[in-house]
Structure formats: structure tokens, C-alpha cells
Predict the 3D structure of the following.
Amino acid sequence: METIKNKRTGPVIFSEYKRGDAIKKALSMTREDILFELKDSKLKGRGGAGFPTSTKWMLTAAAKSDDKFLVCNADEGEPGTFKDRVLLMEFPELVFDGMVVGGYTIGSQKGIVYLRGEYEYLLKPLQDYLEVMRKDNLLGKNILGKKDFNYDIEIFLGSGAYVCGEETALIESLEGHRGEPRNRPPYPINTGYLGRPTSVNNVETLAAVSHIVVKGGSWFAKFGTDKSTGSKLFSVSGDCEKPGVYELPWGTKISELLEIVGAKKTKAVQIGGASGHCVPKSQFDRTMAYEDVATGGSVIVFNESRDMLHVLKNFMEFFVEESCGQCTPCRMGNVKLLEGVEIIEKGEYTFAHINKLKDLGRTMQMASKCGLGQSSPNPFISILENFNDEIFNAGNGGRNGK
Amino acid sequence: MFVAEKNALSEEIESYVNKYGNDRSALLMILHEIQNKHRHISEFAQQEVARLLNIHPVEVYSVISFFAFLNSDPKGRNLVRICQTISCDMKGKSGLVKAIERELGIEIGGTSKDNKFTVEYANCLGLCDMGPAMAINDQVFLQLTPEKAVELLGKVK
């Protein structure tokens, strides 16, 4: 595959960075100072949940244990997301340096990259890259002469399960079990991989850490909005002229993004992937930020020719396949929602039934064990509500009239 | 299975256990290696893994049955996965599927008569900006047309 590294530019993640700089700088600081910088940066986890990274690392650092782990979550399975692929392929130095910094900060000796099975072609190049880091003493024993700081990184390959992006399911699968999410508490920061304190961080979060350590927390906080500092990588696909990864500050309007990627006659945008929300044209002036439309970065553009019911069906089929089946709301609920889409497709529905299914969706949001079932009803509810007219009433009653 | 085959497989699995360790946390990587080489993890292989990791064979089966990329039933020598998720769907994945189905004379999910290909759907391959995408074994191919997809299959040995 082609690489276009030198063409990518951006305010934070794609700004200039020299391999090893973050490690050098971090090792000259105390652990507390690094945590303070992170706190100043107000960096939040980039996988989508948005938990403050400084808090996560502070808690993991405070946990008492001889063994601690830092896991880089590279299991990006959210439909429409591919930013981690770009980071790992073109900017591995940012990700791995961020991991070493994290290891130093929380007091861990081992980092694990959980690479999704679909990205197996990245395994060899990444392993080669780690080998170079070892040669340069950016990994290994007494890193860059820092006495007693030993750290190494291992890559673990997933096997095609979307739910393993959930941190406890990821840990289960690392331990050699079915990738079923755990009940929380305990959280991984206390009882994670092999029962040890473990910090699980998104690829992009770790890349941001490298920049923050070198350039400072307040530099990072200058970008974005008050509650959503820094920038975000957006994976843009669908009906637009220039799909790809874009780095934009948080707080960018959906309409601005659409302009940049050359989207024309756009009807709707799915923000946050299948588990996110479908935003109709009337709301394109909303901003992408934790305080408005929060997202892990997936942006799928639909133009006027797209049948939104077909889109919804594709999403629900995805969730039916990817539900781990452990808890009933998610296992059964997604099947029921998909059946609902199919009866709408056939025109055999009643509004009473559809309303019941929306209620079921809201129940799933509350009752499911992990983020999968809690968010899988989002597209069902948001597409049926925002495209009510198209689906139920268009032209002589839409599907109702068929 | 012949005894010689069994012995060879046992030796192979032992080498993976030597590489990744005999802790349960090595299980997925070991299974991944077996899957890659044989395109399935046979009952005998499951028993051998279980023996070497000192766990019950059904624990191994349980993990295999969970993951989309692991299977206990044999598949074709080459695995073709076509991304079915929304972005590739919009870029024309069904055209690829139909062309491949016609060319190989099978339906998606099936294995060709000569056992050369198993063709499956995959969920999001993370190549949404360059769809429709297809993977043949561990290699990915982008921005395909039905014709190009069939041509690629022709190049596989």
C-alpha cells in the first residue's frame, strides 16, 4: 500500500516530531511532572469514551504491584474508522514513544499492542520497527542510560472480534479466553491483564502523549475547545471526493469538514461509526466535540441517493454478528432491531411495533453490559427519527403505501 | 489422519508453544499460527494445544468458536474476505461478490470445488477510504472493480 507520510500535516498529531524525543524528554522529568503536563493538556481518551488520560495513568501509577501493563488498543473495528492504521503505518514513532512514556509514568515494564487481526499485514513492519528501537536503546534495559528503567513492547494479534475493542474484553482475549467483557468494577487500572494494574489506551491517545511531553500540556490545550482540547483524527469515508484521514481541531463544524473533504449533495453524516449517531442535514452546523457530537473519529458521508433504511440494515447486521452474546439485552435486542428493519423494508410493520422497538433500544442502552449493546441502538433510534419522512412518509406514504 | 501427519502437527504446535510460552495467555497467538498455516484448527490440533498448555480441550474450542478468524472445520487453501460494512457496501461490494460467485461457481460462504478458495464476508476491514476492499489471506486489495477482483483470484496459486 502507498504511503503519503510527508504530505500529511496537522496542528498536533501530524505536526513535526522526531523519533525518540518524547522518551528523552520524559526520562529527564519526574513521573509526577509528566502527569501534571497531561493534566494541563486535558487530554481525553481518543477511542471514543473520552476518559481523561491523566486520571487513568495517575490511578495506574498509584496502584501497588510489581507488575503493571500498558496496553495499546489497536483493535479499531468501528465501521468507518481507519486512523489507527494510518498512525501505525506512517507514524509508529509517535505511538511507540507514547507507550514508553506511559510505561515510565505508570511504572510498567511491559507494553502490549493489541493489533486487530484485519491489520495482520502491519505485524511484520511494526516488529521490525521495534527491533530498531531496541538497537537504539529506546526499548530494553536501562533505556537511554536511565538506570533501572526497563521496558519492552510486544505485539499481540487479535482474531476478528469487534467487541475486543472494549478494554475488558480485550484483556480477556489477551489472557487466552473468549473476548467477553467483564463486569466493572474492578477496573483494569486495579485488576487488568493477569490480574495486574493495566492501562489500556487508544493508539491516537498515545500518539498525542508523545507531542504533549515534548511541547507541553498548555501548548496542546491551546487547540480545540475548552472541554475538548487538542485535535482529532477523523476517518472520512463514503460519498465525498477526498476520503481519508484528516486532523482537525475539536470544535470543527460538520459543515466545515464536509467542505474540506469535498462532499456534495450530502443528506446525512454518520458520526462515530455504526455505534454513533446519524446527523441529518438540518444539524450540519453542530460541532464535533465532547460537549456536542462526541466521536472516536469515524465520519461516513451519505449523499441524497442513499437509502437510509439500507444503511441502518447494514449497521444492525453488523451488531447482530458482533454481539458477543454474553448478555441478553444485546444478544437478543440487536436481533429484534434487525428484524424490525426487515419488516419495515417489506412494508409489513405497524407503528405500534416500531415504537416498542425504540423502547427496546432505550432499554438496551441502559441494560447492556458493555458499550456495544449500550450504543448499538443509537443508529436504529437516530435514523428512524431523523429520517422518519423518508422511511415512512415519502411519496404517497413511503414504504407504508407500498 | 496418518500417524506421520499427526507427529508433524504435534511438532509444529510444540514449536509455537516454545515460541510463545505455555501460559494460557499464549493461546490466541498459537491458534493464530495454526490457523494461518492450515486454514483451520482440527480436533487433534485442539487437543495438542490443550495438552501443551495444560488446559481442557473444550477451553480451546470455546475460544476458537468465539473468534471470526478461527475455525475448526476445514476451509479452502486460500481465504478470500470481502468487506461488507457500509463504506465498502456503498462503493459496490455486492458487484465484487456476484462476480466472484459466478466465476468460482459458489455462493458466498462456500468453498470452491478444487478447494482452492473459501470466500466469505468480513466486517469492516478498516480500509473504508479505499473501498471496496478485499483480503486474500493476509494481503489486502483496494478500490476494486468486479473484473479486478476476479483477476486477482486468477493470480493466486
